[in-house]
Protein 1
Amino acid sequence: MASPQPHPHPSAPTEPDAPATAAAAVAIGPGLESGGVSALAATAAAMAAAIGAAAGGGEAPAADHARTEQLLDDLLRVIDQYGRTLEQWRELEARYLQQIREKDEQIQRKTRLEELGAMAAGVAHEIRNPLGGIQLWASLLERDQEGSANVRRIAAKIGDAARHLNHVVQELLDFTHVPRPVFEPCSPAALARDAAALLAAEIAQRGARVRVEGDDTLSLRADPAMLRQVLLNLVSNAVQHSPAGGRVLVRLRREETPTPVCVLEVSDEGEGVPAEIRSQVFYPFFSRRPGGTGLGLAIVSRIVTAHAGAVTVGDAPGRGALFTVRLPWR
Ligand SMILES: Nc1ncnc2c1ncn2[C@@H]1O[C@H](COP(=O)(O)OP(=O)(O)OP(=O)(O)O)[C@@H](O)[C@H]1O
Ligand SMILES: [Mg+2]
């Protein structure tokens, strides 16, 4: 955003005979106190009136000229200050609007996840029993030495498919449990390093590099096992979507505004997440990865929500995806 050029004569109001209006302009300061913008506008209007009075007053021409110059100087300072205040106000407004949008999306996602969770729990429960039966009959057929080899091979395939389905149902049931974090002090940077160590084989296989940037001594109250799971899912996704030799960066920082927040960023150098699917990637079973179940980010979202935080996806600088988790610093 472009900012107005400062006026080249900023020292004028400090002189002893500076007009009261200029002193008022200095007192307002660069902050955004309530009424700051309107106070500046009122000051500018008062100074413009004073300039008019000075120009039309009966003073000697030289003094008259100097006073007009002085007032003009002060007026430009006030206008400059007004511009900067307005710019700060716009930045603040844009930040708040973004936060409102994110919160709104978060609430919609939470509601939809709860509905999906309830439905999934019911369906999973219904599927489980017949699935157990299929597995049992398939294993009996597989072991039946009197049957043909072909039937035994087919029975083995049915058994494999049933086991896979059982695994999906189990994951679904796990997912439907609402996470209840047990808060204790933990180091997000150390947990990120833990997650990277647990993924060492996957990272090596991909030829990717994972780097954690963050202060290990920064401590946060969160559920360490859950936070590790968040990082595991995000780093694992980043590695899976990295090109060979691509770098995955985990960055941790503390932000103070408006209340302290722990910001965890995971970025990669892959293709990124296309804008049109960004709202869907956090829903269960949304997957565009061959072999993916589509539960990783749904779990991340649930855990982050249980910590009263938010997770968003965007573009990494240059190329790739950037996932940002924001957790209240407690
Ligand atoms: N870093 C990333 N870069 C590009 N796309 C991503 C990235 N992370 C996630 N995605 C997209 O979001 C989808 C959902 O991710 P999610 O982790 O929930 O599921 P998954 O990785 O497909 O399967 P699972 O994690 O259950 O094994 C992915 O299939 C992929 O399309
Ligand atoms: Mg995943």
Protein 2
Amino acid sequence: MTAFQEGNRHVVECIDGMRKPLLEIKNLKTYFYTDEGISKAVDGVDLVLNRGEILGIIGESGSGKSVTALSIIRLVASPPGKIISGEIWFEGDNLLEKSADEIRRIRGNEISIIFQEPMTSLNPVLTIGDQIMENIITHQKLNKPRARRQAIEMLKLVGIPSPQKRIDEYPHQLSGGMRQRAALLRTLMEERPVILMDEPFSALDALTRLKLQNLAARLVRGATVLLVTHDPWEALRIGHRIYIMKERPVRLSRVFLPPGTPPRTPDREEIAAMYAQLLAHLVEKRN
Ligand SMILES: Nc1ncnc2c1ncn2[C@@H]1O[C@H](COP(=O)(O)OP(=O)(O)O)[C@@H](O)[C@H]1O
Ligand SMILES: [Mg+2]
């Protein structure tokens, strides 16, 4: 298998065909209708998310990454946004044809999202401990004291200082970076088969980001992940495949297949070479 698929649809489709798609987006168009006119945020995206993979999506700011992720679970602000066409296939159903109740059920059981802004993923009136413990109790069938001990361990693992104290605090009492870590934990503990992550590590310092990327790559094992990020290193560290969103309105332009399994260390020569290729592709002029 070559490390770099230069827009070669045939090869990419063959590789995709070897795995089983869990979620497939076909020709998605999501527009915003504003006073200044129509903004074609997403205009004809095709994307395949294979079962059990972490698919990295990178691209410049404003290229439509978040809107693509939000469209999957129909959380695009409407108005002014509207999904005007396309299909999103998941478990044999087109999510764009689901009723509001059905899509809520899917959001509650099958597809979770970590938002770019962590406050959106956390409930402001519950302590972070309650929010993390709720999922531990549901999925691991632990009683409250044991779930609490585990939640404290998890908070420690993601580098939150004084976890015994922080566990009883509300989201607004935490710093932005701590909130992001708590939101990530909460979502990972939900154990949904599909996790959409929108810049989940962006508010973190470099060292914490590195630790959390490793942790997330370990904790999501088995789940299928769409990882939206503006950071090519992040996609290279933990993505099985990488799509680049470049044009505006967005279309997916190329698929990259980094060698080896995530989490990868950037010190390998071929990873560094692919980083250079990703950057070159990002800055390359449209033809
Ligand atoms: N609520 C909104 N109202 C109007 N336009 C929006 C809104 N949200 C997104 N857009 C448009 O969609 C484009 C893509 O946004 P987004 O998906 O957030 O980009 P990113 O790739 O940085 O995540 C933006 O350039 C913007 O023009
Ligand atoms: Mg975004």
